[in-house]
Amino acid sequence: MLADSAAIAANRFGLGARPGDLAAIGGDPRNWLRAQLRGAPPQVAAADLRPSWDTLAQALELRRDIAEMKKQARLDPAMAEAQQHKLGQFVRPVYLSEATARFALAVGSERPFLERVTQFWTNHFAVSIDKQFMPGLAGSFEREAIRPQVLGRFSDLLLAAESHPAMLMYLDNHLSVGPDSDAARRLERRPNGRRLGINENLAREILELHTLGVGGGYTQADVSTFAQVLTGWSVGDIRGRFPGGEPGKFLFRPEVHQPGAKVVFNTRYPDSGYGQAVAVLNDLARQSATAHFIAGKLARHFIADEPPHEAVSRLAGAFIASEGDLPTLYRTLIEERAAWAAPLSKYKTPSDYIHSAYRGLGLPVEAGKGPLRPFDLLGQRIWQPGSPAGWPDRSADWDGASALMKRIEWADALGARLGSRVDAQALAPELLGANLTDGTRTAIARAASGEQAVTLLLAAPEFMRR
Q: Which of 225, 248, 364, 367 is most enclosed, with most CB atoms within 10 A?
């Protein structure tokens, strides 16, 4: 084991070292990481967090009120505009509570490897808050669909993510209607009835981003047919054409499901309603292409932007042999020699940088907007990747000159705020271990003030990387 292995464990596998962490990890960092895989996944804790169905049910009610007000807009346009603002006013506090609680868990976690893995999967199954309802659902999606499954099987994680109301609403599957379904035929018989159609968003992203990956062997025909399979996967109480079900909760609507057996990725699936899509998802989770796609993303995240082919192959082999058992995959990653052989090979994303600064400096995460401002400033607002592809995971996406200047400015502001309360010279080896270079050590020692020393520590190249 290399001399800097404790620092690699804390900073690459974890979310950044805290004072005393490297000493506690000692000479057996792999066991320190393995121990974090024991026990139930930690849950986000805050008194005001709400279940997704509750948030969504109230948001849907507000949207119905908005639609009603718009009908009356000719009489009172101001009333309609006021109602439109209510939805944003409702979901924004939900987002702030969820994001702050998640940030606090990351900063204080005693199992930072598991927390990093959780955030990896949330980004893999990305929803983004820049779409209606999502600010109120992104946090509960992570709590309800991702966290409970991170120590289980990939197939269970996949099913939990795809069937969650946040994913269904984000990718518009609740709008997808089989053209030969009972509901579509019924509507066609009405005056001015129009033929409803399939929405392919969810099917495409499952194949392209969540399982097989680009180049995984699927065709456009597979996307189209899988989208038919997924018709009926919806959310309760979508008023209008298809009401019913418990408000805000997952609901399979047989009346909008496209009937008949279907062939996806060379396999025929009989029409079993809800179970038809479950069967496709289970088969996708077992595909070799899925194993290699997931292995490649994990290796890129934990080893290097361009990980060794052999490392990806070993991870994929573990995925296949264990039938997608995620702890087996994590333990294989811990044993992967390449993950320990190239210190500082990964440039920290803004989120990584903020987490490591808060953990290293022992900063508190308080309720409200304040602790979340750095994520906005540095360009990685929590749960806002902007697309289903999630946040990128290569250095070139984050290490531009402008982005670097923002980090330095933020580090300078932190230094000014903390001043001489932090002994950066003593703290540097506690956080960076053997990765601390002589140049950085000397620069911190020669700093003109305590606040400048803090800035130099946070702006050091080895603090910017993991």
A: 248
